[in-house]
Amino acid sequence: MENRITLLRQGRLQPGQGLVFGTHRPHPVERIHFDIDQYVAAYRVGRKPDGSPYRYHIRTYGCQMNEHDTEVMAGLLEAMGYEATDAVEEADFILFNTCAVRENAEDKVFGEIGRLRPLKMQNPQLLLGLCGCMAQEQGVQRLVREKFPWVDLVFGTHNIHRLPELLTRARESQETVMEVWDRAAMTIEDMPKVRKDRVRAWVNIQYGCNKFCTYCIVPYTRGAERSRLPEDVVREVEALAAEGYREVTLLGQNVNDYGIDIGVTFADLLRRINRVPGIERIRFTTSNPWNFTDDLIAAIAECEHVVEHIHLPVQSGNSQILKRMNRTHTREFYLALVDKIRRAIPGVSLTTDIIVGFPGETEAQFQDTLSLVREVEFDNAFTFIYSPRENTPAANFPDDVPLEEKKDRLRRLNELQAEISLRRNQQLAGRTVEVLVEGESKTNRHVFAGRTRTNKLVLFQGEKRFVGQLLPVKVTEAQTWLLKGELVREEVAVS
Ligand code: SAH
Ligand code: SF4
Ligand code: F3S
Predict the structure, then answer these.
(1) What is the pLDDT of residue 326?
(2) Looking at the keywords, is Transmembrane helix present (predicted)?
(3) What does the pLDDT look like over 328-349, one tens digit per residue?
(4) Ligand 3 closest atom vs CA 222
(5) Smallest Cα–Cα separation from 45: which of 99, 94, 92?
(6) Of 175, 272, 228, nearest to 31 (Cα)?
(7) What is the C-alpha to C-alpha distance for residues 104 and 389, in angstroms, rounded to an integer?
(8) What are the structural domains, with CATH classification, of the chain?
(9) Phi and psi torsions of 103, nearest 5°
(10) For a pocket test of ligand 3, which of 72, 133, 207 has the largest count of ligand atoms closer than 8 A to its C-beta?
(11) Positive or negative, the Cα torsion across 130, 135, 139, 141?
(12) Pairing with 426, which of 41, 82, 210, 247 sits 20 to 30 Å away (CA)?
């Protein structure tokens, strides 16, 4: 009998086919170990008639999850025989891996696609694709059909693995090939990846989100939470260590909830990864304040390779707004959690996300956000003006706050955070920090960039052979968004 795995391998799995999830706890998700060589074999492209290789160019928007999806799609394309190019004019396939979290990100993508139309007209062989979170939105699918018919291929976040077949179909088809699955049925292991960095690697541990914050589109674009098995994650991390990677960032929209669907905990996953030889630093993002358990705090504190940095989005400092956001934490709960974390993990750096101008947010409620920011003293904050998103509950909330007022709130918040970030960086002046060297600065060949365990950017004079090493650097100058320093030469690499 043909099962879904056979269908998938043969590329015959239809859109929307798969296990049906409820909105909360999904049924056990099917896990597929993908034989990518076998799958891709039918879609190899060979060379163009003039002997040159087919070339691809991917533009990535949005979060690290999307950046990492791009690495998977690059892996699939290279398995097909495509080569990467930075120059859009040279590309045979241009792919937009999009983000739907705010409207301005979407506008930017459509602007870019519009600008590529002449290129497409000049070169009928060029294929344009749109994937990622925007592709999951029905409004976007409609817009592409009606206004951007020169887009050749649209696919969503749940069927990335089908890119080789879909691209091949798009090359043969007269019409836009559109395949968007509305839910995920499986997690797929062993996808090929072309990673951007040689020192630091992203590792998915969890897909989707069950939280349904009222402003947020992610649960609709990424589906219900699904955890990878710990043994699959550990195997990937071990392989990365063997390739020479020194740092991993574990990715999920809500990493604290990792494992709930498969009966394991995030804290135990950290403990297991901490034992992988060669991995010096373990980062993770994003943590929700909810379900940040004492055991998780203990695991972060006790695992020497888990860094002292927690990205803990608060969104607002006012409990009424938080309730309307469906954030499940209150101001008091958040402050108590920060206190607990700071007591258990000395020197921890805390960063956050904040939305200003949520529908109906009053000046007094915004003041609560400012006072929380003053009280917590975040090392950094990513701040956004609320943007209504298709089919999310908050898009229907009455909103009497004028845009000018929202912009002014953002400005005031950013000014406050910049002061605090500078002050926190100045506390490091004169101290020696451990830096993982990432590479040369883009503007000056002798200046190298790296990060502290607390994720602060450090620039210093260095040499190429230092890339990938952990080095002691003395901070000589603290700026708002970066530190400058000098290598402490008498010491060798620390680990
Ligand atoms: N899973 C993460 C956030 C992912 S989205 C978490 O829960 O923390 C990244 C950030 O985008 C969010 O933290 C939020 O601050 C912001 N964001 C999400 N939806 C938004 C919207 N509709 N308007 C403005 N900002 C939004
Ligand atoms: Fe969006 Fe909330 Fe899920 Fe984060 S936790 S992705 S903000 S719904
Ligand atoms: Fe954007 Fe999707 Fe990430 S909406 S923030 S790319 S999960």
Answers:
(1) 97
(2) no
(3) 999 999 999 999 999 999 999 9
(4) 7
(5) 92
(6) 228
(7) 11
(8) 35-179 (3.40.50.12160), 186-426 (3.80.30.20), 432-487 (2.40.50)
(9) -65, -35
(10) 133
(11) positive
(12) 247
Instruction: Return the H-helix or E-strand segment holding 478.
Output: strand 470-478
Identify the pLDDT of residue 25. Answer: 36
Among 92-101, 187-196, 389-398, the minimum mean pLDDT is found in: 187-196
The whole-number pLDDT of residue 491 equals 52
Asked if 458 and 449 touch (Cβ cutoff 8 Å), the reply is yes
pLDDT at 36: 81
> In which band, very low, low, confident or very high, does the pLDDT at 271 lie, cut at 50, 70 and 90?
very high
Tell me how far the alpha carbon of residue 488 lies from the centroid of ligand 3, in angstroms.
40
Is 131 a known ligand-binding residue? no
Crossing angle between the packed helical segments 64-80 and 163-172, to the nearest 10 degrees? 60
What is the DSSP secondary structure assignment for residue 299, as one 8-state letter?
A: H
Q: Which residues contact 448 (CB under 8 A, 6 or more apart)?
A: 437, 438, 439, 440, 441, 459, 460, 461, 462, 463, 466, 467
Tell me what the mean pLDDT of segment 431-448 comes to: 90
Q: Is the pLDDT of residue 480 over 90?
A: yes
Residue 249 in contact with residue 286, Cβ under 8 Å? Answer: no
Q: What is the pLDDT of residue 163?
A: 96
State the pLDDT confidence band at 380, using cuts at 50, 70 and 90: very high
- Report the alpha-carbon distance of residue 249 to residue 17 in Å, rounded: 32
DSSP type of residue 315 = B
Predicted confidence (pLDDT) per residue in 386-409, tens digit: 999 989 999 999 999 999 999 999
Sequential DSSP letters for 180-217: --SS--EEEE------S-SSEEEEE-EE------TT--
Give Cβ neighbours of residue 430 (< 8 Å, ≥ 6 apart): 474, 475
Give the CA-trace dihedral at 62, 65, 70, 76, to 10 degrees: -150
Instruction: Note the pLDDT of residue 34.
Output: 79
Q: In a 3-state reduction of DSSP, which class is residue 97? A: strand
Q: How far is CA 199 from CA 20, 64, 466, in A?
A: 39, 16, 11
User: Parallel, antiparallel, or unpaired: how do β-strands 127-132 and 380-385 relate?
Assistant: unpaired
User: Ligand 1 pocket: which residues have CB below 6 Å?
Assistant: 101-102, 215-216, 218, 253-254, 286, 288, 313, 315, 353, 355, 384, 386-387, 389
